[in-house]
Every structure is written in C-alpha cells, then in structure tokens.
Fold these 2 entries.
Entry 1:
Amino acid sequence: MMKNNKRHTEEITIGVVGLGLMGCSITTCLLMAGHQVIAVAPIPDDLKHAETRIQAHLQKSYKEQLTRLEPDTHLSSCTITEDYTKLKSCYLVIECTLENLEIKKTVYQKIESVVDATCLLASNTSAIPITLLQQQTTHPERFFGLHWAEPSHISRFLEIICGAQSNVQLGEDLYELSHAWGKEPTLVRKDIRGFITNRLMYALYREAFHLVENGYASVADVDRACRNNAGYWMTLVGVFRWMDLTGVPAYHTVMKDLFPTLTNTTEVPKLIDDIVAAGGKGVANAQGFYEYTPEEAKLWEETFMEFSYEIRKLAAKYPVDVVEQKMKRKKG
C-alpha cells in the first residue's frame, strides 16, 4: 500500500457511513482536507438532513477562515447516497453508526461486500473495544478505531486505535494522513476500553459526581473549578507537561495523601440515572444537570460552536511543537 504522506489528499477517496451529527462533521473535515468523500446514509432520515448540515458547517468554516475554498467547491467533491456500492474505490471507510454491535456488524458486511481487500475500515466508536469490532470483519488486520471529538471539523483531537489484530504499520499510515485533516493525533498502539481521553475524562466525571452527591459542592461549583483550572491550561499542555511546568515533586507528595480518598465506585451515579430516567438529554431537549428554557438551550449550542471556532484560532498559535519551532527560529 502506498504511503499516505506521499499522496495528495485529492487522490484519496474516503467513505463515511452514517450521517448523523458526527458523521456530517467528519465528512466536512475530510472535504476541507481536500478528499473526495462518499457519504452513505444507512438511515433515510439522515439523507434528508445531511447536505444541509454539511453545507452549514462549510459555510461557517469558510467565514471563520478554516478553509480558503467556498462551500460549493468542497461539496462538489462529496457524493451523498444510500448506495454502498459507491464505496468501491475508497482507500478508507469510516463507520459512524449507533453504538450497537449488531448494527455495526451489518454495516461492515455491506461495506466489505463492495470494497477492495486493501481498503482500510475504521469505526468512530467511543464505547466498544476495537478488538471486539474487528472480530466482526473479514479482514481484521485492516480495521482501526478513529475516535473523533465533536465538532470534528474544528477540533484538533483524534485518536487512532489499533485492535489486537490490527496491522500497526497501517495505523501509522492513518496517523500520517490525519495530519492533513488538521489534527494533532494520538496513535493508540494497544487496545483498551475507552482509549485514552475517555479513560481520563470519565475518571474526572466520576469524582465530579462524588463531590456533588456527597454535598461537597454544587454542579455549578464543580464546573466552575474545571473551567478556571484545567480548562485554562489544557489547550496548551497535557497532564504530564503541566506537572513538568509546575513542579513534579509537589504532585508526588499530594498523590500519596489524596489518591486513597478518591472514589473508586463502579456504579453509575444516581444523579445521572435520575436525569436519564426522566428523559433528560441535556441541551438537546433542555433537560439536564442545569435548567434551561428552550431559548437558553439553543443559545448554549450556538455559543459552544462559536467558542469552538475561537479556541481553534487561539490553539493554532500554540501547536504541539511550538517550542521546537521557537528553538529552530533561535538557531536560524
């Protein structure tokens, strides 16, 4: 297989199967990177809304200068269809369907019935182990996880996960290619449930629930603490660089005393159980951990998207190799 970094993105056709919110933003990301994209809608309702969503993403991205090309130019590289046979020429197909093993297995069978044996297959799952998913395929060595963050066309985040049977060299090819998507990717060479980011974040969520449910702080207090501490530095550095910057020995001292007091519950917290049981979905239906009017919920969605573009601009000034670049300029 030809190395991705020696091919132009317009020479690489990528398929996206599943055109819900995330499938549309992934499609948008790939179009802005210059790929030809075959976007397949397994659900007829998605077919109705996909082009409108993708066009809106492209228009906003053009306005925010994430792309120099007008929306119609990108859309001309996109085929939106229900026909799986159009995936035949794809180098990579990304599955973005519901987190249901049987649904995914059916989708993989449809994809593998038409694509070449060298075509890479990936899932945008965040919940099902890649090793389990690749067992549902004919060629497990070409199967990977591609874990995106929403909005996928704005966020720099991407995890590329190898399953137990994945060809790691092909994973490295995906890693190289994904830089052209505007990502600062992570290659997870060994499969683990939740991958990297979710394992870190759900440990944080668990402790947040513990603090609220046991009366130490309110929901708003916990959010405020996250927003003004970790939220302040995490766009620039991760946890290990942060400890380097602020003094490693102090963290070692705190860990000895604090770790034994952290919650290690394996139960789903009652607070979230009650919200879900009552039908709450967050801003999607104005019922969540906070109270919203429909207007407030809509404004929070809009504000989140606005923030995503703004933080992308700021973060672009501080790429992962920002210090290396500064060192080169000094030596030059």
Entry 2:
Amino acid sequence: MNIKSKIEGNVHYVGVNDRHKDLFEGMWPLPYGVSYNSYLIDDDMIALIDTVDVCYFEIYLRKIRAIIGDRKINYLIINHMEPDHSGSIRLIKQYYPDIVIVGNKQTFGMIEGFYGVTGEQYMVKDGDFLALGKHILKFYMTPMVHWPETMMTFEKNHGILFAGDGFGCFGALDGGFLDSRINTDRYWDEMVRYYSNIVGKYGGPVQRALQKLADLPISVICSTHGPVWTENIPRVIDIYDRLSRYEAEEGVVIAYGTMYGNTELMAEKIAEELSARDIRNIVMYNVNRTNHSYILADVFRYRGLIVGAPTYSGSLYPAVEDLFTKLLLREIKGRYLGLFGSFCWAGTAVKKMGEIASKGNFELVGDPIEMKQSMKDITYTQCAHLAGAMADRLKKDRR
C-alpha cells in the first residue's frame, strides 16, 4: 500500500502537477503552475473521483496502478466536466472498459459530446447514496459552481468532501498535497485570484452550495485544484463565503491606461490624495503592464475602484474597455467607482466608461474628470476632489 498517497481511510490522492502551462483558460497567468487533482477510494468497490488533463494520463495511470495494481475500477465519479478534470475519461474507459460512470442528468450529455463515451451509467440526484464498502458516498448537486453539471461528493465515514472546483486555487503542489505537510502561504492569494478569475460571476450559486453543505461534519476538503485541506478548512470556507457575498476590505484599486504618461499623472495624484485622506490600502495598475487577473483579484478584495483611460481613436482605450468587460461579466456588487480620463482633441473615454459602468452594480462616487492634453492646476484640484469623495465614501463604512 502506498501510504504517501493516503488522505484518510482508504482514500488516496492521484492528482498531477502542470508546471508548463502559462495561462489557465488561455487568459490567467500561472506563475506557480496548477494541479489537477483526482482521488481514488480503494474499498470493496473501487471508485475514481474525477480525472486529470489528458496530457498527464501516463503519470496518472501509474499512480492509480501503484495503489490498486491490476484490479479493476468499478466507478468513475464525475463531479465536474471541465476538460482539465474530465480529459482522461476516454482513456480510463479504454483501460477499464467495465467501469460505471457516475454523474447527474447534466453530466452524461457532456461526456458523450466531448469524448464520445457511452456505456453503463449511474445517474444520481441530490441526496443519493453510493456504498463502496467501508466508504459511503452522498451526492450534492451544486449547479453553476461554476458549470451547470457541477456536484460535490461527501464521504460520510471520514467527513471527506470531494468539492470539484469548489474551494480550489491556482498553484502546483510542491512535494506533498496535504496542507498539514506543506507551506500554504502562497496559496491564499492564489485562492482569491482563482475565485475572482474563474468562479467570480457565480456568487449566488456558491452561497447556495455553502448553505447546502453547512451542516456536514467536513474534516477534509478535496478540491480539484490546490492542496487537500485538513488544518485550514475554516479559513478556506470563509474565503469562499466572503468572496461569494462580494464582501470587501477598505481600500482602492486604481486601474488606468496611459499612452504618454498624462493619464498616469492623474492616477498618481489621486493615489497621493487618498493616502493623505487616511486610506492605506491603495493598489495601482497600469492595465497594459499587468494581466487583468491580478486586477480582478484586488477588485474582489477592496471596495473602492477608480478607473482612468485616454480617448483612443475616438473611443475608449482598448485595454480599459477589456477590463470593464471582465468586471461586468463577474457581476460584482457593493463597489464604489470613480472615473477619470484624458483626450487630445475629442474626449470620449470618460463618457464611454460611464455608459459601460451604468450596466453594472457600481455606486458612482465623485465627479468624473476629463483632462484635455495635460495636467493643469484645475486638474490637480479635480483629482483631489475625486479622491476625497472616494475616501469619504469608504469612511462611512467604518461607522
């Protein structure tokens, strides 16, 4: 028996690390890589829970066979069909042709659609059970966390929650997979970034899932990305709870586009004035120099957002428009928004930002600023007033 892979009981970790991919979903940077987690329950009936990216199938199969040898796998439980977790289904089916695939009514159409896999299926509904021997599984439907077919599987005898992408985070696992055996420091910011980038739109479904799971005696969380959580479960659940309620700290994100530095000077003045007004958490981003992944994470973290952009070809600076598209997609609530911009001969950026922002859930703070060509005395005053309005609005929440 491979004890290094054991979590609790006869539950084993058989996930893999991806240290080659630069961008998750083709958009989000992976400076620390990412893990694709799968789990094996070695009981009277053997169950595999989720799979891994197909690129890592050979490593994956070797890990499985190190635990069960040539014995067959009875069940493949699919909590989530995103290809980084379902990508090995077709190959698993080839190596274990009698395996029964367990999923819900949304799962099986996706399996056939992605992989052309049919065969014996076991469809489960909310609250259904599956007994493997000493391990008894109960299924919870958690749709839109963050795909429609997502569900979670709870192992009753050891309190293990197989959570799909729920409670996941970016970052490969260096050596161990249990949080009790690794330094978890880097995963906390990566969890916020993962949530804001991947799950952020679905705060309501996350809240419904948390309520459904609230009374379970969870002692282990097995997500499909990141560490297996044992010691830090309250902190992990709290992060997902706060982010899905769009709860935020006092602070301001200043995100701006600039071509020749004039719009950046406005951002610098606003930041200076915010600091003078006793706002300590201030983060500044040039939208062309920082991947929007990190900006989104801080927008989820802080209540204040001030966005600036120059007019570009009679319209809004493209990188700022793209940032607004990502913000609106996530339906972020409870954020205070200030706007500023610049132009040379025909101002459009500030107007465009106002039109876009009106489609979201932002509370507009202060008067938008539109600067012609370069900073002047009036511009410095306007920037100070915008910063002051944001500081005053944030301080109201202190009471």
